Amino acid sequence: MAQALHQYRHDFPYILGRNEQAMVHASAGFARMSNRLRAFACATSIGPGATNLVTGAAGATINRLPVLLLPADMPSTRIPRPVLQQVELAWTSSVSVNDALRPVSKYWDRIERPEQVLWSAPEAMRVLTDQAETGAVTLAIPTDVQAEAHDFPAEFFETRVWRIPRSLPDPDALAEAVTMIRAASRPLIVVGGGVVYSEATDALAAFVGQTGIPVVETHAGKGSLPFDHPANVGSLGVNGVPVAFEMAGEADLVIGIGTRWTDVTTVSQTAFGRPDVRFINLNVASFDAHKFSGLPLIGDARATIEALGQALAGFHVDPEHEAKAARLNREWDAEIERYGNLGNTPLPSQGEVVAAVNDAAEPRDVVVAAAGSLPNDLQKLWRSRDPKSYHVEYGYSCMGYEIPGGMGVKMAAPDREVFVMVGDGSYMMMPSEIVTAVQEGIKLIIVLIQNHGFASVGALSRRLGTEGFGAAYRRRGDDGLLSGDNLPVDLAANAASFGAEVKKVATIEELRSALDEARSATATTLIHVETDPDVYVPRFQWWDVAIAEVSTSEAVQEARSSYEEERAKSRRHL
Ligand SMILES: Cc1ncc(C[n+]2csc(CCOP(=O)(O)OP(=O)(O)O)c2C)c(N)n1
Ligand SMILES: [Mg+2]
Q1: Phi, psi of 253, rounded to the nearest 5 degrees
Q2: Stretch (H or E) spanning 447
């Protein structure tokens, strides 16, 4: 592999990453930003280099993003045996650590003979380009097979075109969907990432304009309509806005488009509370289209939205329903304004930081985040003005995605500024790709939120009666617990040591000017800001996080009984 990369170094770009997991995150960010029309390959050594791929691969597969993984495998001759980094198992000789990639791969193969590539490479491309199937694809190649010559037929190397069809659902299903929509009194559209990938956002705006059906968005679908579109009631979900939840509770017909209906979106299946609620699922994947006993519309989002629009000529929702959506949109926007201008002292709140970054970003610029409390604040407060401007990885919500993911976004869209927002915990998982960004001249604006630990997990733990246990970064105290002083870490110095321009700011005014300077700079800048961990944008919705049935703590017992009450509201949608 290294020989081929070296020989073709001027024709085939090669990027040296710092961590294999990060390489996959960067590839996923790149693929998502490219609407799944482009992908990277990630090649690794055997053993730990290969197993480091697993977390990234899970993230790519969950988010349905194409990435080709090419880990090296132990020699097929099994000489020498055991080779360095081989996990030896007494019960079998045909398993290697690369088998750990099977459950997180949409296609997996081990190339034991060079000619197997003739069959496996097209299979890999089929899966990578199939919008319903796509995810991580693994071709594990033993080191000795990598070095073997083979006389491949010339036609194998001819240029191939992989078409992505804009297929339409079964006509009967489409007709039934039209009947259901015409009969609905409070229809609601839930848009997921599929709408963005299919480049269906203009078609969606036209459809919504024509029919007046309100829209709520998932994390991956946020930005499908501009934040101030009167039909956009905002984000639905555990991190969503109360007005979207209110709208969902009234819906008698839910039209999911390009969503895979995670618990985060459905608020652990409590969002759609009407006993008579029905689902229509427009999705390119049959698997998702059949969820919640919905009417499956298996097809491309853009083509199908257009077809539905034609078939629904003359239909318009009750004007009261439409007006309510517009009113709720303005209502929540006033809250965005309020949370963004709390004037909290001495430390600013995270919501104010989000607002300042949002103000500094042009409409086409991109915000990237993944885990911690930021996805909550961003989903509630970020005013998206472009379908590709909100890039929050909330399928795997993988701490450490932020910086490499942002790198992938910037590689896919060099004409946009990329604002990576990352908590201190997530930063420490994977800061090393700052070095890769510097090496490649990939400009990022990284906003690092220092709040000395896991604010998100701490808040959740307090709600569940466990007092934020184990979530703060502190020295071990005299009581044997993590109750001592904050740790003397200097993440700004860490980022500077990796070659980033670094600005440490204390106030929102300083943050605003640092953001302006970072915009006009050409190099990667990290802005370090400390926020108040106790002032956050609340989570309004319940989430099914199981609580112990038995505990000596009264707080936990109380949390358990309200958990049982809430859980009883969870619907099965059978
Ligand atoms: C790799 C990984 N490990 C653990 C988790 C569970 N988890 C979710 S958020 C979080 C804490 C994040 O801390 P930080 O980045 O500082 O953000 P904050 O909660 O302070 O906003 C943890 C441990 C995760 N999402 N990803
Ligand atoms: Mg933190």
Answers
A1: -140, 125
A2: strand 445-450
How many C-beta atoms lie closer than 10 Å to residue 159's C-beta?
A: 4
Choose which residue among 380, 394, 426 to substitute to test ligand 1 binding: the one with the highest number of ligand atoms within 8 A of its C-beta: 426
Residue with tokens 């059949």: 290
Contact yes or no for 501/523 (Cβ under 8 A): yes
Q: Residue 129 and residue 149: Cα distance in Å, rounded?
A: 28
Ligand sitting nearest the alpha carbon of 470: 1
pLDDT band at 41 (very low <50, low <70, confident <90, very high): very high
List the residue whose alpha carbon is closest to atom 10 of ligand 1: 372
**Which amino acids bring their CB within 6 angstroms of ligand 1?**
371-374, 397-400, 423-426, 429, 451, 454-457
pLDDT tens for 310-337 read: 999 999 999 999 999 999 999 999 999 9
Q: Which ligand is nearest to the CA of 369?
A: 1
Ligand number with the minimum distance to the CA of 423? 1
CA 450 to ligand 2 centroid distance, Å:
6
CA distances from 58 to 61, 62, 104, 143, 430 (A): 5, 6, 5, 24, 17
Distance 372 CA to ligand 1 centre (A): 4
> Is-contact 468 477, C-beta < 8 A?
no
Chain segment 84-137, per-residue pLDDT in tens: 999 999 999 999 999 999 999 999 999 999 999 999 999 999 999 999 999 999
